[in-house]
């Protein structure tokens, strides 16, 4: 369509398809992950010359990755074969017709032994559109020298922090409350823990039921409790981690990456972890992570599926878990004793994964997320009933792709 | 064909005034004019003609990449949607506010800096180079460093000036830090253009004026400023156009929280995040219109100082 | 003489103020680049100990594609774009400022229009055009848009300067027997120097620091420039910000700018004071 005005010179098939000696190239577009090159090398060996995986890096930020891939998919670019999709993009890419469905043997292999939560995040309208590679869940991290027993509910958490405050110790509870996806993750966790829904099952209706309102109340209580950070509405993951690491906080709600980071940054810090506190007990935590999808425009779908399956097989998931710090999606890997050192918290992670929540599944997820983070920011200004009303209205527009995003 | 440019002026001035038939010199001048402009025009049009037309065409359609089947022609519906939306106008207001304040400050500060860079007696190279460095730093990195500086406990600015409150979570403070970051970064742009304009003011005129008894201030306002009008116009015009499209600083400092989003950010969100090509294109066109109005006002204000507005600057 | 010394001291003091205002935040970036993960957020303006790991990482030849290759891309693309934009801009600006021809106003208007249209919407169509022409992820693929978006500023700046150069000089030179070329190179060019070098600096900085086109029209280190390469820096894990290495990279890529400006800043003022107009 855009070609009308362009003077067509030779058609371009650069780097897509086969190289000089006719060997098939499978282009892998993946987020920058430490040591992924080793996994790619493993799979190239296993391929036995039938194909070669070439790893092209995407930008560090999830938004940047999506932007790069969407631009090329929208143009029908055949250059990409296997892509890393954040768990929330599955519905969007599937509905837009950019990724291929997994069927038959490939589907069975992808599902075999994989945890249910990640599998849910890779499905849309009952079909599997991606193979889960790694996952992520937030935990409650706390100072073991200040706190004896980890609180199990949010109210307990606030109370424990208040006690520390009165005693003059570090007391702040760190949460990612900036106006971005991190806030949506937290809110989704609270909503799911309260048994609520934000969006209907088919992803078309904005629901925001009682559970969601209860979650709003909890969030607001937390933000105005006096134990939240003053920078709450500007805090992202690493801000929270750094503050905890510098002993300004007693608790933080954050991803497992903080374990290795804090060990390097402040080896003397004494901390432990526990399940994320929920409303009436431990929470149903929102899962993150990456799935592998095959592009609709790939010229070698068979090889692409095979390559994807290899990259996320049990052995490679274990390697990535230990060397790149990304939790696996295949349950058996967790039992492996080699995981103990890098993942002392693996039991807790597994527990949470078995009782996890996903973010609203809809092709308009980006819209929904933008609206939710805007309406909920800053958390101190939430008025549960009115905010819920506003959320219902604007979320519906977002799902219908009407109106304007903030 | 050596186009003689010896005295094209003569060909016109010594008059075959009023005759519809062009003189040889006139025709040669036109040819030369077109020839000299051609490469620039060709490059500019080749790269932007189609994308601009395509964007305008997109703005007349409902086109969301996520729902490709719903694509249809809707004429001006998108414009109605955007112009009646609260988020758009909030962003517009914030953008206008930031633009006016930062450009005003930059004009004054830039002029001061330009005077210093031009007239300083010692360490000319050092002053000029260091004054320009802020403009040369990658915007995103500079924005990050400001973010760190304003974060309580981690940053020296927050610790010194803000006490207990977190500046980046308060609307007034956020706007202040954004404007500060913008001004620090782009004043050198103004200063450089103004300094080059200053360099064109003949020393003799200034000497003559001071011998006539004019004070420094009078020399400044009555001799220097009027002669600098073209440079001021270029500096003001381009700086305002860029200021209106502010994105990076806000994105890194507050991510648009506390309603500090700009029109560029809201366009980005709708176009790239929301994949709503129709609305995104509509917003682009609206931004373009707003910016065009600003440009029009400036050019009218500065009258004959605009390029190409009078006949070849012949005096 | 005392007056001059006093003035010098006065100016020296003013200079120091300017330098502090301009460089204080830059020093903060430099300081961050010398901090390791343990001291990154300790709030100290001057790091207690200098940690050169960040620099070692990005300058390591083993990580060629991370920073060194983008640096080369940046230098090449920015220099070429600047050179071409200044040449084309000078030609067009001369025509606009000195010559009379129909369509002049239109040209000026169109170039302003191009400068005003939000670039974010132009990126996707441009991407598709470049893809089909095989320019995607190449140096020309970035050079062409850079020239395009630098030209309006170049044309406006240069024509503003050309306007200020008196006609009489050219006429006088020719009456003294100079050929048109000699008139141009010996009389006009030196007077145009301030405008040309100012434009060159501004265009160079624009190309050097552009992010939008660099991230959208490249996909590998073949043509990715440094601002875009910064988005590919990783911390030790997904959420960790690679602040240290990004700051180190920012420090290094500011150095060419400093050199470029140092070299050209003197020539900006060379202009009229060189004595073309005597009495």
Order of helices and strands of chain A: EHEHEHHHEEEEHEHHHEHEEHHHHHHH
Shape type of chain C: globular
N→C terminal distance of chain C = 28 Å
Strand order of the largest sheet of chain A: 2-1-3-11-6
- Protein structure class of chain A: alpha/beta
Principal-axes geometry of chain A comes out as globular
Sheet of most strands of chain A: 5 strands, mixed
- The number of E-state strands of chain C comes to 0
Beta strand count of chain A: 11
Beta-strand level of the residues of chain C, as a percent range?
under 5%
Question: What is the mean predicted local confidence, pLDDT of chain A?
Answer: 89
Oligomer: heterotrimer
What is the CA-atom radius of gyration of chain C, in angstroms? 23 Å
Helix content of chain C: over 70%
Question: Could you explain how this protein is built, in words?
Answer:
The complex is a heterotrimer of chains A (406), B (315) and C (279). Chain A is α/β, with parallel strands linked by helices and 406 residues long. Chain A contains 17 helices and 11 strands. In chain A, the strands form 3 sheets. A 5-stranded mixed beta sheet of chain A has the order 2-1-3-11-6. Chain A has a 4-stranded mixed beta sheet with strand order 8-9-7-10, with helices on both faces. The longest helix of chain A is centred in the last third of the chain and has 16 residues. Chain A is globular, with a radius of gyration of 22 Å. In chain B, helix 4 packs antiparallel against helix 10 and helix 5 packs across helix 8. Chain B starts with 7 loop residues before the first helix and ends in a 13-residue tail after the last helix. With 279 residues, chain C is mainly alpha-helical. The C terminus of chain C is likely disordered. Chains B and C meet through helix 1, helix 2, helix 4, helix 5 and helix 6 of B and helix 1, helix 3, helix 4, helix 5 and helix 6 of C.
């Amino acid at each position: 369509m855009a070609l009308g005005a362009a003077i067509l010179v030779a058609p371009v098939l650069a780097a897509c398809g086969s190289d000089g000696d006719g060997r098939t190239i499978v282009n892998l577009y993946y987020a920058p992950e430490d040591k992924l090159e080793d996994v790619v090398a493993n799979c190239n060996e296993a391929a036995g010359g039938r194909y070669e995986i070439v790893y092209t890096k995407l930008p560090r930020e999830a938004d940047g990755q999506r932007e790069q891939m969407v631009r090329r998919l929208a143009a029908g670019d055949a250059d990409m074969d296997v892509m890393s999709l954040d768990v929330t993009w599955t519905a969007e890419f599937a509905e837009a017709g950019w990724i291929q469905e997994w069927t038959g043997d490939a589907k069975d292999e992808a599902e075999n032994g994989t945890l249910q939560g990640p599998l849910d995040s890779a499905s849309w309208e009952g079909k599997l559109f991606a193979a889960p590679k790694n996952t992520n869940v937030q935990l409650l991290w706390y100072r073991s020298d200040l706190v004896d027993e980890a609180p199990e509910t949010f109210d307990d958490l606030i109370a424990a922090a208040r006690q520390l405050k009165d005693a003059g110790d570090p007391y702040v509870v760190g949460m990612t409350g900036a106006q971005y996806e991190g806030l949506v993750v937290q809110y989704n966790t609270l909503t799911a823990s309260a048994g609520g829904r934000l969006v209907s099952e088919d992803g078309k209706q904005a629901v925001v039921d009682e559970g969601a309102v209860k979650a709003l109340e909890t969030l607001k209580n937390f933000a105005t409790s006096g134990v939240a950070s003053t920078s709450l509405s500007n805090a992202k993951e690493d801000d929270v981690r750094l503050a905890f690491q510098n002993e300004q906080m007693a608790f933080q709600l954050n991803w497992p990456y903080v374990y290795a980071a804090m060990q390097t940054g402040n080896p003397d810090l004494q901390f432990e972890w526990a399940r994320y506190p929920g409303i009436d007990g431990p929470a149903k935590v929102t899962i993150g992570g990456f799935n592998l999808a095959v592009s609709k425009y790939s010229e070698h779908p068979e090889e692409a599926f095979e390559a994807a399956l290899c990259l996320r097989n049990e052995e490679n998931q274990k390697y990535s878990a230990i060397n790149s710090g990304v939790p696996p999606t295949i349950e058996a890997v967790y039992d492996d004793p080699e995981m103990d050192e890098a993942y002392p918290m693996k039991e807790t992670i597994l527990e949470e994964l078995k009782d996890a929540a996903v973010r609203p599944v809809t092709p308009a997820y980006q819209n929904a997320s933008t609206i939710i983070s805007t309406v909920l920011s800053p958390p101190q200004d939430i008025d549960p009933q009115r905010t819920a009303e506003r959320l219902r209205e604007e979320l519906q527009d977002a799902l219908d792709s009407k109106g304007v995003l903030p | 064909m050596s186009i003689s440019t010896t005295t094209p002026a003569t060909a016109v001035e010594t008059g075959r005034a009023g005759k519809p038939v062009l003189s040889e010199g006139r025709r040669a001048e036109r040819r030369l004019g077109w020839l000299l402009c051609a490469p620039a025009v060709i490059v500019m049009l080749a790269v932007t003609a189609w994308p601009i037309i395509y964007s305008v065409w997109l703005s007349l359609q409902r086109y969301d990449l996520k729902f490709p089947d719903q694509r249809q022609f809707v004429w001006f519906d998108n414009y109605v949607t955007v112009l009646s939306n609260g988020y758009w106008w909030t962003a517009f207001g914030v953008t206008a506010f930031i633009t006016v304040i930062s450009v005003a400050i930059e004009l004054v500060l830039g002029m001061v800096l330009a005077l210093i860079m031009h007239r300083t007696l010692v360490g000319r190279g050092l002053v000029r180079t260091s004054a320009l460095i802020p403009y040369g730093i990658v915007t995103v990195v500079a924005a990050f460093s400001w973010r760190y500086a304003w974060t309580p406990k981690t940053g020296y600015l927050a610790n010194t000036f803000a006490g207990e409150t977190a500046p980046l979570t308060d609307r007034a403070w956020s706007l202040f830090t954004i404007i500060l970051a913008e001004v620090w970064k782009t004043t050198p742009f103004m200063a450089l253009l103004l300094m080059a304009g200053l360099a064109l003011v003949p020393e003799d005129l200034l000497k003559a004026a001071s011998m006539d008894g004019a004070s420094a201030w009078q020399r400044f306002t009555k001799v220097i400023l009027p002669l600098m009008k073209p440079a001021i116009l270029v500096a003001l015009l381009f700086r305002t156009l860029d200021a209106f499209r502010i994105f990076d600083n806000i994105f890194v400092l507050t991510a648009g929280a506390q309603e500090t989003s700009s029109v560029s950010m809201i366009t980005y969100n709708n176009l790239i995040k929301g994949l709503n090509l129709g609305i995104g294109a509509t917003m682009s066109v609206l931004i373009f219109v707003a910016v065009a109005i600003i440009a029009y006002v400036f050019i009218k204000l500065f009258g004959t100082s605009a390029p190409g507005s009078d006949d070849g600057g012949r005096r | 003489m005392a007056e001059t010394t006093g003035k010098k001291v006065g100016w020296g003091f003013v200079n120091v103020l300017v330098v502090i205002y301009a460089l204080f935040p830059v020093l903060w970036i430099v300081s961050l680049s010398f901090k390791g993960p343990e001291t990154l957020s300790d709030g100290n303006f001057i790091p207690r100990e200098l940690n050169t790991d960040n620099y070692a990482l990005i300058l390591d030849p083993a990580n060629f594609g991370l920073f060194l290759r983008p640096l080369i891309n940046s230098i090449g693309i920015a220099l070429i774009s600047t050179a071409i934009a200044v040449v084309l801009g000078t030609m067009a600006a001369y025509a606009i400022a000195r010559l009379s021809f129909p369509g002049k106003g239109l040209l000026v208007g169109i170039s302003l229009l191009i400068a005003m249209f939000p670039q974010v919407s132009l990126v996707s169509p441009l991407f598709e055009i470049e893809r089909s022409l095989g320019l995607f992820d190449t140096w020309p693929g970035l050079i062409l848009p850079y020239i395009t978006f630098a030209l309006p500023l170049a044309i406006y700046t240069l024509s503003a300067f050309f306007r200020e150069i008196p006609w009489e000089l050219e006429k006088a030179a020719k009456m003294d027997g100079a050929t048109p070329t000699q008139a141009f190179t010996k009389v006009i060019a030196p007077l145009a120097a301030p405008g040309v070098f100012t434009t060159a600096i501004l265009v160079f900085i624009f190309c050097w620091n552009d992010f939008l086109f660099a991230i959208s029209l490249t996909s590998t280190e073949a043509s990715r420039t440094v601002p875009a390469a910064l988005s590919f820096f990783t911390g030790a894990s997904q959420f960790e910000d690679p602040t240290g290495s990004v700051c180190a990279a920012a420090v290094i890529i500011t150095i060419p700018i400093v050199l470029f400006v140092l070299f050209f800043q003197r020539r900006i003022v060379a202009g009229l004071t060189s004595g073309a107009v005597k009495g």
